[in-house]
Amino acid sequence: MWETDTEDFADIKSAELALLSSAVRADSAQTSAFLSEDFAEIGRSGRRWTYAESVAALAGEEERPLPRTSEWLFNRVSAELVLVNYVLHEPGRDSRHASLWDTRGPTLRYHQGTIIPSSPTEL
Questions:
Q1: Secondary structure of the chain as H, E, C letters
Q2: What's the pTM?
């Protein structure tokens, strides 16, 4: 069941937001602390990223302001796993994101971002 009450999932939301910050992304040790060793991501481009590729790519990013987020939803899929959905708002584009968090860390197991078309003709 999807929930919007972030109080029960405050640690996970905080960790997700930390991974969006340039300070954490630039620090490979901090990024690594949030990602499980078997982490995988499907980026907005459709590319699949491994743990090592993600840590290296994030460390090389240029600094940016923390993006605005909205529409947070949480779904406890097992005792240790929570599926998180939210919308990321960046200049010129919005995207939907899904993350699978292991609550024992919390550590991120999987992430996917999908660009939201600005018009139906972009589908």
A1: CEECCHHHHHHHHHHHHHHHCHHHHHCHHHHHHHEEEEEEEECCCCCEEEHHHHHHHHHCCCCCCCCEEEEEEEEECCCCEEEEEEEEEECCEEEEEEEEEECCCCEEEEEEEEEECCCHHHC
A2: 0.91
